[in-house]
Amino acid sequence: MRLVVNEPGLFLGTRGGVITVSKRREKRLEVPVAKVDMVVVLTRGASFSSALVRLLSKHNVPIVFYSPLGLPLSVCRGLTAGSVALRKRQYEAQSGETGFMLAKLFAEGKMLNQTSLLYSMARNREVSDQPLAKHLHEACRLVRDVVRRVREVGLDNGGREELVRLEAEAAKIYWDGVKQALSKVIEFPGRRKRFENPSDPVNISLNYLYSVLAGECLVDVEACGLDPYAGFLHADSPRRPALVMDLMEEFRQQVVDRVVFRLAFERKLDGVVEAGRLKREARMMLYRAFAERLNTSVTFLNRSLAISEHMLLQARRVAEHIMGRCEYTPFVL
């Protein structure tokens, strides 16, 4: 389970191997450390005892601090064993066929999950709104055509730049379909990233949970001994962990988009924005829905596990692919 801290004034300590949460000396919660996988801090003003930090480090339970916009700021965890050989192979792979194949598979996984979500929305509207269902089915077909072209891209005929161009082409088709579907229930002007300062609740919610998802992937990538800043599809940047951005591509639709679209269709995103930001209670609502989705058990590669466990396994498969022990398979539902 994830222990989420979203209220100023909370104090987290420990007693006898149990995590205690209190406010003004009033007990709020007690939970054994063995039941906690991660401590997520969404607020300022909470405090932790050094004994608790030692206990969490001993059990390798990370504390992840997020900004009010959902950006992961820091991860506090116990020391992990380094892997010099893995990181050397990771840097070598960035310019070779091994890394380029990973970039293609990340892009392919993202697009196939886009078609999966569009197809699901189309099926649900085949009786109630046939024109919309037809539009969404056509969008599926167009994205699959882009996937076919991705598979044909080689390192020497455009390389990563061509993958990025095709990824953008598929994204335009996908978000146009989503816009058509959401227009029935909520304002959605089309996909707007954080730097475009969107004012609508759908884009603000998407940007918030994408950032939270990045924090989850960052923990998994570091746990596997990989350098989170040395990516394959995304370019290296000192400000952005490129490999984390790579890994999260195939989870965006199944973890974040699906959650935000469901909340929009249930009219739970009405009134969640204030002064261009999510209200505190809205952030908690989104995080709860996100965590529920992460805990949902799905079958991938014949293994039925929570999505959060599949995320960690995918990070390990990236490492195995880099070391030449197996070929990476994108997470697609």
The share of residues in extended strands comes to 15-25%
Number of helices: 9
| Shape, per Cα inertia axes | globular
Q: Distance N terminus to C terminus? A: 23 Å
The ordered H/E elements are EEEEEEHEEHHHHHHEEHEEH
Rg is: 21 Å
Describe this protein's structure.
Helix 3 (97-124) runs parallel beside helix 5 and helix 6 (201-223) crosses helix 8. 52% of the residues lie in helices and 15% in strands. A four-stranded mixed β-sheet has the order 1-5-7-8. It starts with a strand and ends in an 11-residue tail after the last helix. It has nine helices and twelve strands. It is of the alpha/beta class and 333 residues long. The model has no long low-confidence stretch (mean pLDDT 93).
Topology:
Elements: E1 2-5, E2 10-15, E3 18-23, E4 26-32, E5 38-41, E6 47-48, H1 50-58, E7 63-66, E8 72-76, H2 84-93, H3 97-124, H4 130-152, H5 159-182, H6 201-223, H7 242-265, E9 273-274, E10 277-278, H8 280-294, E11 297-300, E12 303-306, H9 307-322
Parallel strand pairs: 1-5, 2-6, 5-7
Antiparallel strand pairs: 2-3, 3-4, 7-8, 9-10, 11-12
Helix pairs in contact: 3-4, 3-5, 3-7, 4-5, 6-7, 6-8, 6-9, 7-8
Can you describe this structure in just a few lines?
This protein is of the alpha/beta class. The chain contains 9 helices and 12 strands. The two termini are 23 Å apart.
Keywords, separated by commas or semicolons:
four-stranded mixed β-sheet, 9 helices, 52% helix, globular, 333 residues, alpha/beta
